[in-house]
Amino acid sequence: MSVRVGVVTFPGSLDDRDALRAVAAARAEPVGLWHADADLHGVDAVVLPGGFSYGDYLRAGAIARFAPVMRLVIEQAAAGLPVLGICNGFQVLCEAHLLPGALARNDHQRFRCQDQQLIMERTSTDWTQGYQPGQVVVIPLKHGEGRYVADSPTLDELEAEGRVVVRYFGQSPNGAARGIAGISNPAGNVVGLMPHPEHAIDPLTGPSADGLPFFTSVLQRLVA
Amino acid sequence: MSSGSVDVIDTVTLASQTADQAQPYAQLGLEDDEYARIHQILGRRPTQTELAMYSVMWSEHCSYKSSKVHLRQFGEKAPASDALLVGMGENAGVIDVGGGLAVTFKIESHNHPSYVEPYQGAATGVGGIVRDILTMGARPVAVMDSLRFGAPEAPDTARVANGIIAGVAGYGNCLGLPNIGGEVVFDPCYQGNPLVNALCVGVMPVDRIQRSAARGVGNLVVLLGAKTGRDGIGGVSVLASAAFDQDTAAQRPSVQVGDPFTEKLLIECCLELFERELVVGIQDLGGAGLTCATTETAAAGRSGMRVHLERVPLREASMLPHEILASESQERMLAIVRPGDAALVLSLAQRWGVHATLIGEITDGERLVITWHGEAVVDVPPASLADEGPAYQRPMRRPADFDAIRADDAGKLPRPHSATELRDTLLTLAASPNLCSRKPVTQQYDRYVGGNTVLAQPADAGLLRIDEQTQRGIALAVDGNGRYARLDPYAGAQLALAEAYRNVATSGARPIAVTNCLNFGSPQDPEVMWQFEQAVSGLADGCRTLGIPVTGGNVSFYNQTGETPISPTPVIGVLGVSADVTKRIPSGLGNVGDAIVLLGQTRDEVSGSEWAWVAHQHLGGVPPVVDFAAEAALAAVLTDAGAARLLTGVHDLSDGGLAQALVEACLYRRRGAYIELPPGADAFMQLFSESSARALVCVPDNAVTQLRQLCAQQAVPYAALGVVTAAAQLELHHQFTLNLDELASAHATVPTALR
Predict the structure, then answer these.
(1) For residue A87, what are the domain limits?
(2) Under an 8 A CB cutoff, do A14 and B451 touch?
(3) Closest chain A CA to residue B465
(4) Active site residue B110
(5) How many structural domains compose chain A?
(6) Could you give the ipTM of this predicted complex?
């Protein structure tokens, strides 16, 4: 059987083609989804890709969450649909309240693109089953607004429930609260992170292939 | 501007009736004889709108009036090339790279706006060159930027440099175009006149090339993209075609404001229109806005065109016809479509959220008629604006100080001798503003988006995969050296060409085409004009010798502050083709145990070098020898060795010589090196000379013989220098040893302006 993974293109999405390529590299069937279509075309999982949806006007992700396709994503995520938000996609998930907290401007105020060491923490989510807890990986990040922020009770809760999926290893690239790079919802089907696993699927075009397990994990989860 | 009330629109009818009315042509930058010629062309005085159109189209920026007599050399001396699908004259040249794919690339300046308003100036510089590439039918796939700022410690440099870098980053990142390389240079000559040269490259199927010609009577003219506002009015005639004075701040309204989100949608919309073959002709709106786009498309098609100007969507309802036509509002394209396709074009644009408005139609005859609520305000032969602008053979004179500067040889400067002095010199240079790490700049650029970046800065060249099935790719490098060009503009242009050519070859790609951005002072200064002619000749001769054509480029004059021009700065971009990007030569040092080999000949050449500048603030003498035969031979060795996968590491030698090449090569993947300089030769000269046609390569033991054979075949000098080591240090036998942390910390020095 073939697992179908949808990638949403919003106006201003940039890494949508990269996410489709990563889905294909994981041997799933990539399906392009259009922001204005209220139709998920029966996909088994959804990726919200990086970019500057709607030009990041108002706030990054603030307009995208109201796109017709998002209504279905929000609805079905509650019913267990695996959803991965990368960078701008993470911002959209926070704006849509599928994940708590928000992404603020980097503490150094500049856009930052670099190969980043990350430590995998929660590997029981739909998107991280292919990793070992404590595994250190190298995945690129590239963002101007990637500083994860939330109030202390929320941060405490995320940590207590083991919902911090991935943290920056070594120096923080953006001043994120408690070094958080990515989190999940309690069920573990919705994951958002600032780094770009789709840019680390082949050492030819990225620093490593360390990002590929994000895309193979969801396959294993769906086939199992 | 007309003598009457501003509410009275100056029409063609009115102009015919008021032949003697005085007009402010001089304030608009037109000469007496140019104004007289307009009278002659029209048989009457121009309307206010026509006058504004002639003034922008005949400006230096649009008409190339001072440069075109010289630029002809690029065509006249061009080597025969089967790969050239579209040559100079269109928005950008197009090269057949095989496998059914064509590549278009071009570099363009946005210097003056970037000084006035650094962020927006640089951002719209990127936006403009991206639209040039889109106009050819290509999907833009990467950008590069060649930047020059004043002294790093000067008070204003931080404003200019940080604004420009953020602007390049902000626009390119938001468009989803990886930035794969470029240059950042600090020199006091750019203090009041920074250089922002942006390069874009695009890829398309060979059968999708678009042309600008507006053809087919009855076809419709569609304006796509952003609404038209008052921003950027007179940008080309005000900013880019005259020298700066004290009032540049007052010119801020002449700088356009960019919106990369709109441009991203415009790109996707246009690509879909191309793919569905809905476009007969297309032109981007850049300098001189709608004036340029309507006149150039009509002239190229030898067509007439009627434009209903009141249909243009405006940001400000009170805009006058001449303002609408001169506006340089960004993110706009003009497309010619068949009437039967118009509904589909408009609906596709709507799907992408792009404004699309039918503003006119192609007509019989060769007149461009622009009406404003039914009244003709323009009635001109479009070619008179687009193609038949003035051309000047400006006076030229060799600079008065030329011989004195060349006689002031850097070879006589005191040199470091002892091991300690050499060690300190290496560290000082590695930490100097032009040689320290470019990371504070390049980490603000997205180099990954698109998923096809194989090599990017700090590699010598950018390398992109353009076909995931065949692994075909393209390499790009952009280089310039204003100091060399100051010493000798002919050689300086050739050295820039040689370096970009060499950098492309270090990736393993084969260089095939050239673009150029020629940044000079005022063409009305005979000494500048001489420098310009020399640089063009040098570049044209060099391209002929190397067998790679110039496919397009840009001239930027009036780069000066008061009477003082910048160092002449020809910036050269070279495009290469890689049959298989998986065979790229890795950057930096190879694996532990691999031999480190210096290819090429080192001469005692330090005039114009970074050492002479950093150690002695000296600029004099004769720049390094240009040897294109040696460059071609070196490139052949690199491409052949790359194709055979013989090499595990590479770095070209350029600014800072072997010393800097070793520093960068060690730090690239943090590998150590043990080096023995060739016996007998002066260690300083070996380390700091900037002789051209050289590269450092790493080769495993089992490939040494093959590499030696390749070098022998091509007569490339081969010198075994040492070996890659597991020790975290750079050891120069009999000289000094530096651990990599020391090197890294020197190289990580951030220039004052960027802190």
Answers:
(1) 4-223
(2) no
(3) A205
(4) yes
(5) 1
(6) 0.96
